[in-house]
Write a structure and sequence with these properties.
This protein is mostly beta strands. The protein has no helices and 18 strands. The strands form five sheets. Strands 7, 8, 9, 10, 11, 12 and 13 form a seven-stranded mixed sheet that branches. A hairpin with an 8-residue loop joins strand 14 and strand 15. It is rod-shaped, with a radius of gyration of 35 Å.
């Protein structure tokens, strides 16, 4: 976007009425842009030799970030007198910032999870909407500087989905960002191969195969102990590859 911004002022000088006999009064002005950290940039100058209303001066704001600024118009006459006037403005040339809080982009998530986002804009987030696999949602209006926005995945179909977030600020600057998630609505399947039936040894070989339709790994927790008191048990927690045979020994005497 072009960030050349025109400022208008009333310029008047008493000596302008005394122009005669080679006396040519003039006023030299410069426009200073000051940010919130009090950094100043004098990037526009103009000379006036008569009263003007409005007196236009154009400031080059290219390279400056969207933020709050002060505009300080400072003028000096030939006698060395200086005066200044300060006004403030907000530079906003882009749409709201869209930040994905949870989960991460391209993550595998459980159906029913809430996609959490934070949106912010210096001149307020006016409205937010989204497209899920190309289908547009309803628009929500806020009018706030910072918005916490959540999207429920309960009705999403299992598999990969594209979520495109749109946000509009109060100046009609629009921003959008595309995210991809894979929703898993199916529990893992566990096939126990051993032990089966009665046991004759205190050390048993545990064998099982855990599979999942979407995840390449499955976290499994195996318990072995007395039925009457499961608080006294052996446990084995491990992450296994989906579909692969898992085998290990457990000593039941330690239960």
């Amino acid at each position: 976007n072009d960030k050349n911004l025109e400022f208008s002022y009333l310029i008047s000088e008493n000596s302008f009425s005394a122009r005669a006999n080679g006396f040519n009064p003039e006023v030299n002005c410069k426009l200073i842009i000051e940010d919130e950290e009090n950094n100043r940039d004098s990037n526009a100058e103009a000379t006036y030799n008569k009263n003007m209303n409005p007196a236009a001066i154009v400031s080059d704001l290219n390279g400056k970030q969207d933020n709050k600024y002060n505009a300080i118009m400072q003028c000096s006459d030939k006698a060395g007198f200086t005066t200044s006037v300060t006004s403030n403005f907000i530079l906003d040339t882009s749409g709201p910032i869209i930040h994905l809080d949870w989960p991460r982009n391209n993550d595998l998530v459980k159906g029913g999870s809430i996609i959490e986002l934070t949106l912010g804009d210096i001149s307020n987030v006016d409205s937010v909407w989204y497209e899920l696999n190309g289908i547009k949602s309803g628009l929500e209006r806020f009018g706030l500087g910072t918005v916490e926005y959540g999207i429920d995945t309960s009705t999403w179909v299992e598999g990969r989905s594209e979520l495109k977030i749109y946000a509009n600020d109060s100046l009609n600057n629009i921003n959008s960002q595309l995210f991809t998630f894979t929703v898993d609505n199916t529990k893992p399947n566990i096939e126990v191969l051993s032990p089966l039936g009665q046991l004759s040894n205190s050390t048993v070989r545990v064998q099982y195969r855990a599979t999942d339709t979407l995840s390449s790994t499955v976290t499994c927790n195996t318990f072995a102990g007395l039925i009457a008191d499961l608080s006294v048990s052996q446990t084995d927690l491990r992450e296994v590859n989906s579909g692969e045979l898992t085998s290990f020994d457990m000593n039941l005497n330690q239960s």
